[in-house]
Amino acid sequence: MTIRHLKTFIAVCEYGGITRAAEELHVAQPSVSQTVAETESYYGVKLFVRAKRRLILTEQGKKLLPKAREAVESFENFEKLAYSAKFDPTVRIGASLTLGKTYIPILLTRIKERYPEIAPRIYIDKTSAIESKVLDGELDFAIVEGAVSAEAEAKPFACDRLLAVCGANFSAPSSADLKLLAELPLLLREKGSASRDLLDSALAARGLAATPVMQSASNQAIIAAAIQNCGAAVLPEKLVLPYVNEGKLRTIEITDADFRRTSVIICGKNKIFTAAQRKIYGLCLETAK
After folding, report:
1. I need a surface site. Which of 54, 69, 219, 264 has the fewest CB within 10 A?
2. Which candidate, 251, 100, 282, places its Cα nearest to that of 173?
3. With b meaning 16 or more CB within 10 Å and e meaning fewer, what string describes 239-262?
4. What does the pLDDT average to over 81-103?
5. C-beta of residue 88 within 8 angstroms of C-beta of residue 124
6. Of 143, 183, 104, nearest to 263 (Cα)?
7. Average pLDDT over residues 170-198
8. Residue range 203-232: average pLDDT?
9. CA 216/CA 112 separation, integer angstroms
10. pTM check: above 0.70
11. How many CB atoms lie under 10 A from the CB of residue 225?
């Protein structure tokens, strides 16, 4: 049974017969007769009786008619909602904390310039939380640093690196190996953040571990503490370089580790983009080049 069967049944009832129903449905009369017969045969019920060249609804037909109307109305409401979703201008974009500060403002400006009809919705959190929302369908796609699971479809987005920095007057050498870095008072992001995971992995490879004097989910709180000479921090270059250029921070060159990394743009493997989502996803990739 299909919606067509129900619509044909309703049309025959409303227009009083096969001929008028066929005219209104723009089909041949035999097609209407066959569709009604298929419905009766499928359910084993008699919907009409013929009397004096007219079709009259049976008692069973009278009971089923309002239900058929409800079913058709529900389907039509579903179709309207489905088609409107296709043209929904809302795009839900996630970003990890660093990219949320360095890249999202650029993206929002470019969306406004190129696609003013599209309504972006931004959510910023650490990588693991963002990935979870992408996989749960709460975000359409996201740009994140660090490792992501095989459940997400990931494409390279951009490259950056972490820098070890400290306050201009902090007592630390201008270069150090990981062992010496681990011995300094460290100001670090919380465990589970992309920056912290990369540092912890590099230390663990040499049998070392970080014991921070301060850890925070806020990059800005760590930068502020470093400027006040409270310790050394390991943070994304784009975040700390302006403070280095101003002389508020200085870099500590790490001689035995490379903190370069690639950020990725992720979405669900079975994600089907709307027209608006596809445009902004493409704009993200374009802007990253």
Report:
1. 54
2. 251
3. bbeebeeeebbbebebeebebebe
4. 86
5. no
6. 143
7. 94
8. 95
9. 33
10. no
11. 18
pLDDT at 85: 67
C-beta separation of 193 from 98 below 8 A = no
The pair of structure tokens assigned to 283 is: 């704009």
Amino acid identity, position 164: A
Pick from 130, 123, 127: nearest CA to 92:
123
State the Cα–Cα distance between residues 222 and 1, nearest whole angstrom: 64
Task: Find out whether 173 and 252 touch, Cβ atoms under 8 Å.
Answer: yes
Q: How far is CA 30 from CA 22, 26, 52, 198, in A?
A: 9, 12, 20, 72
Q: How far apart are CA 101 and CA 148, in angstroms?
A: 20
Using one digit for the tens of pLDDT, what is the confidence trace for 99-136?
Answer: 998 899 999 999 999 999 999 999 999 999 999 999 99
Q: Tell me which residue has tokens 């005219």.
A: 23
- Domains for the chain: give ranges and CATH numbers: 3-86 (1.10.10.10), 93-289 (3.40.190.290)
Tokens 């374009």 correspond to 286
Residue at 152: amino acid letter: A
Residue carrying structure tokens 């067509």: 4
For the segment 233-283, what is each residue's pLDDT rounded down to a tens digit?
A: 999 999 999 999 999 999 999 999 999 988 999 999 989 898 899 999 999
pLDDT band at 41 (very low <50, low <70, confident <90, very high): very high
